[in-house]
Design a protein that fits this description.
alpha+beta, 4 domains, 12 strands, two-stranded antiparallel ribbon, 55% helix, six-stranded mixed beta sheet, Hydrophobic Seed Protein, Beta Polymerase, domain 2
């Protein structure tokens, strides 16, 4: 007689299959083709996991006993196909389901053997779904549903994935040591799934990550970048980052983060700068209003990485980190470049790290309109993100101080808004462009045109809007002084 746990799992399985009925138009079309050709077809991995969590999957993954060329023949004519992974047994096809486009990837059962010096397996095709599931990363991803969909048919779950899903725990189908030795990227995927699903890892997985962390060295920077991006953009990135740092894994792809644990901050109100950084990240996420923002989140994560290298202990033990924002900006640029992030992401994140302390001069009082204009000019299109990062950087437990800082930033934003209304701060430029400068001075293109433009721009920032006549007069004064200097 089945126990209460078995009954609950059976009920969950039925609910999952009902959830998957939302994609039946896609799965049934594929199942008909494969059944007609005498092959088995299963929905596997993430889509099954998500259905058990009550989520309708978007893209779909399938496994089959059909070999790659047979898969290609079976999907012929159903929609656009791609064969970039056919060497590994994968064929892709895009199907239209109720007006929505679904990417489907169908892979031959696998029973790969891994080379210890590489995470690339020696591809070997298998004959059973159980054997295929045994080589997957985590038990919650090692489940399958036989197609066509049938509520009465049990979920194929040879490794207890449904139980682990109910416990919200990540475990591996086999030995975690062997799993991570075979494919070291799975360790970072454990941190990513922790951040995405809100799960914990079991003790064996945690110990294996700590033991095998150095194996991440053989994984390409691009693959690590992609997993880190998914982790950072997940709903609970703090949990994933804490696993990566606590296990020692982060030392192999983001060592700057772990070093922050060694650095007590200048206010001595945090256990360390690392804890402060994770709090800033969470506070920045809370300020997002258009979905996850990779640039903002990376900037929050990296904003203080310059502190360990700039730490100084002064009289009476006072700790300071002079110019840590400048040092940190360079460090952020180097790390993100090493991880092969796009150039625009690298430049935007490093610029935010460089500017994140600029506001504190305003909080001390005395900013002129020209200083406000310069703040806007230097932030450029990153101004909104800089607002969010700066506000998030306040993690003091002193309620009065936190309120004062918030009020000061409210004041700065109000002044920016007032100046913007009067002066169009989004287009801070002098009254003369390069062509007009050349015409007024009677010169051709050359470095001096850029010098003149920058001089007029600085005057615009310092004084506010200028008429064309005023700009011409200032240009001529500058030109005359330049001539005197040449003499």
């Amino acid at each position: 007689m089945p126990g209460a746990e078995d009954s609950a799992l059976a009920t969950a399985a039925r609910h999952a299959v009902r959830e998957l009925m939302a994609v039946a138009a896609t799965t049934d079309r594929l199942a008909a083709r494969f059944t007609e050709a005498g092959h088995e077809l299963y929905l596997v991995g993430g889509p099954v996991r998500d259905a058990l969590l009550g989520r309708t999957p978007l893209d779909l993954d399938f496994a089959t006993d059909a070999r790659p060329n047979d898969i290609l023949a079976a999907v012929s004519g159903l929609g656009p196909t791609w064969t970039t992974g056919i060497t590994f047994g994968t064929v892709g096809v895009q199907l239209t389901d109720g007006g929505a486009e679904r990417r489907c990837e169908i892979t031959t059962f696998r029973s790969d053997v891994y080379d210890p010096a590489s995470r690339k397996p020696e591809v070997a095709f298998g004959d059973t779904i159980e054997g295929d599931l045994s080589r997957r990363d985590f038990t919650v991803n090692a489940m399958a549903v036989r197609l066509p969909l049938d509520v009465s048919r049990p979920i194929v779950d040879p490794f207890g994935g449904m139980t682990d899903l109910a416990r919200r725990v990540l475990a591996t189908p086999g030995s975690p040591q062997q799993s991570f030795d075979d494919d070291p990227l799975r360790m970072l995927r454990a941190a990513r799934f922790t951040a995405q699903l809100g799960f914990t890892v079991d003790d064996g997985v945690r110990r294996a990550i700590a033991d095998k962390a150095s194996r991440l060295e053989i994984v390409s920077a691009e693959r690590i970048r992609d997993e880190l991006t998914k982790l950072v953009l997940a709903p609970w990135p703090r949990a994933g980052l804490e696993l990566a740092v606590g296990s020692g894994l982060a030392a192999w792809f983001l060592p700057e983060l772990g070093r922050l644990k060694e650095t007590v901050d200048e206010h001595r109100r945090h256990e360390d700068v690392y804890a402060h950084t994770l709090t800033v990240l969470e506070q920045a996420i809370a300020l997002e209003n258009d979905g996850p923002d990779l640039v903002l989140r990376l900037a929050a994560l990296l904003h203080d990485i310059g502190k360990p290298d700039t730490k100084e202990i002064g009289p009476r033990g006072k700790v300071s980190f002079h110019h840590h924002e400048m040092v940190g900006a360079g460090m952020a640029r180097r790390r993100l470049n090493a991880l092969r992030y796009p150039k625009d992401v690298v430049e935007d994140v490093s610029r935010l790290v460089e500017l994140h302390l600029r506001f504190h001069g305003y909080a001390d009082g005395g900013w002129t309109d020209s200083a406000v204009r310069r703040y806007v000019r230097d932030a450029g299109p990153l101004l909104d993100r800089l607002h969010k990062l700066t506000r998030s950087d306040c993690t003091t437990r002193n309620v009065a101080k936190a309120r004062a800082l918030a009020a000061a930033y409210d004041s700065l934003e109000q002044r920016i808004a007032e100046l913007a209304e009067r002066e169009n701060l989004e287009k801070l430029r002098p009254a003369l462009d390069g062509n007009e400068i050349m015409e007024e001075l009677g010169i051709g293109p050359g470095p001096v045109v850029g010098q003149a433009y920058r001089h007029l721009l600085e005057l615009r920032i310092d004084r506010g809007p200028m008429t064309r006549d005023e700009a011409v007069a200032e240009l001529r004064r500058w030109w005359a002084a330049l001539g005197d200097g040449d003499d």
